[in-house]
Design goal:
Layout (H helix, E strand, L loop, with lengths): L3 H6 L5 H16 L5 E2 L11 H13 L2 H4 L9 H15 L8 E4 L1 H13 L5 E5 L6 H6 L4 E5 L10 H7 L4 E7 L11 H18 L4 E5 L22 E6 L12 E5 L6 H15 L6 H7 L10 H17 L11 E2 L8 H12 L1 E2 L1 E2 L9 E4 L4 H17 L2
Parallel strand pairs: 1-10, 3-4, 3-5, 5-6, 6-7
Antiparallel strand pairs: 2-8, 7-8, 9-12, 11-12
């Protein structure tokens, strides 16, 4: 008998995908110029030449049997050591190779981290607005996701509501900074306060509470933004990272999990991830990609276009009359819809203007919409009059 749980999930298509699929259908029917698509967070700049050259060098010079052979269960030792060294140099940490677990992007890292520190019946707290895939990531472990409502004035943590959700069943807190979809970066003040609160709760409940950080946008931070390295503030922390955005390699599915060396059982958590892989079928990311990132750990794609687009779009939307919290990083913006029903607003934009944006309901923040501005600047310029026309319809 087939699994009815997953069968039912097939009928619950992602809202982001609904809008993306509509954009493709419209473009096929009316032509590509009929659509300005801001729905998907796919990097719009190429990977740096050095990343491509690293792959080419390996393919050209390495013994193919060795290069394409199985990776060790816990990852390539040289890759793990290189990642640990880079984190230590950049953030003043004390990681060793044994604290690093290469994964298939941040998604693989999060899935392993959540399974490593929760059990069925536990609670994981996260903060709205949040990436919708957190729901299957968490519920797939048997734990329950509890969501702190958004502080829509700043999108920093709503600490009053957070304290209300804490119980002795809380095993982990999951944060995403820089944040998808708001573009907000949690400040040093916010992270310090969160770490202090979690430390008090650990002492109150008599068990560790892990802080899991989802950081694929770590390198996309705009000038003047306070962007602390979260794991340096709290011992029981696990950092989940992806090179999808920093090196524009989303299709290569390469990332890692980094266990804070000061965490409880820090020496056991990565071996535990190896065991978790036996249940998930993860079995390590590509051997080639693990090796290829080693020489480019201190590099990024040219990410400057995202800040250019952010400034242009933010200033235009505010001038039109939208309420927007200025993003501090990523390539997302999360304005307030001029009407309460953001779904209606976004479908009007799509069907009448060919402007593809995503309602905030699926990020558990109704009344807002996400703009993914990882697009050519020319597309932003073309879209601004449409955003104005759309706003004026509801003025």
């Amino acid at each position: 008998m087939i699994n009815t749980f997953y069968k039912e999930m097939t009928g619950k298509e992602s809202v982001i995908r609904q809008f993306f699929d509509y954009s493709r259908k419209r473009a096929a029917e009316l032509g590509p110029d009929s659509v300005l698509n801001f729905s998907i967070g796919n990097p719009s700049v190429p990977a740096p030449d050095s990343a491509t050259e690293a792959m080419q060098t390996l393919l050209r010079e390495e013994d193919p049997v060795t290069l394409h052979g199985y990776s060790p269960t816990l990852g390539q030792p040289s890759t793990k050591a290189a990642i640990a060294e880079s984190l230590n140099k950049r953030f003043g940490m004390n990681y060793k190779a044994e604290h690093i677990f290469p994964t298939s992007g941040a998604a693989g890292a999060l899935s392993h981290a959540l399974r490593a520190v929760t059990k069925a019946g536990d609670t994981v707290i996260t903060f709205a607005p949040y990436f919708p895939e957190y729901i299957p990531y968490v519920t797939g472990t048997g734990a329950k996701l509890a969501v702190v409502p958004a502080d829509t004035t700043s999108f920093q943590i709503n600490f009053e509501k957070l304290e209300e959700l804490f119980t002795e069943n809380v095993a982990a807190v999951l944060i995403n900074s820089p944040n998808n979809p708001s573009g907000i970066v949690y400040t040093t003040e916010t992270i310090t306060r969160l770490a202090e609160l979690m430390q008090r709760k650990q002492e109150e409940y008599g068990h560790e509470i892990f802080l899991i950080t989802d950081e694929p946008y770590r390198e996309i931070v705009f000038e003047g933004t306070d962007s602390p390295f979260v794991s340096s503030f709290y011992d029981n922390s696990i950092c989940c990272y992806s090179f999808s955005k920093s090196l524009s390699l989303p299709g290569e599915r390469i990332g890692y999990l980094a266990v804070n060396p000061r965490a409880v059982d820090a020496d056991k958590l990565v071996p535990m991830c190896g065991q978790i892989s036996r249940f998930t079928g993860h079995n390590c990311p590509s051997s080639l990609m693990q090796r290829a990132i080693e020489p480019v750990l201190y590099e990024t794609s040219d990410l400057s276009i995202y800040e250019v687009n952010a400034k242009l779009l933010y200033e235009a939307l505010v001038k039109i009359g939208y309420s927007v919290v200025r993003p501090g990083g990523t390539f997302y913006m999360f304005p307030q819809s001029p009407i309460p029903d953001a779904n209606e607003f976004c479908w009007t934009a799509a069907k009448e203007l060919g402007l593809i944006i995503v309602p905030g309901d699926s990020f558990e923040c109704p009344g807002h919409f996400r703009i993914s501005y990882c697009v050519p600047t020319e597309q932003i310029q073309r879209a601004i009059p449409l955003f104005e026309e759309l706003f004026n319809r509801y003025r």
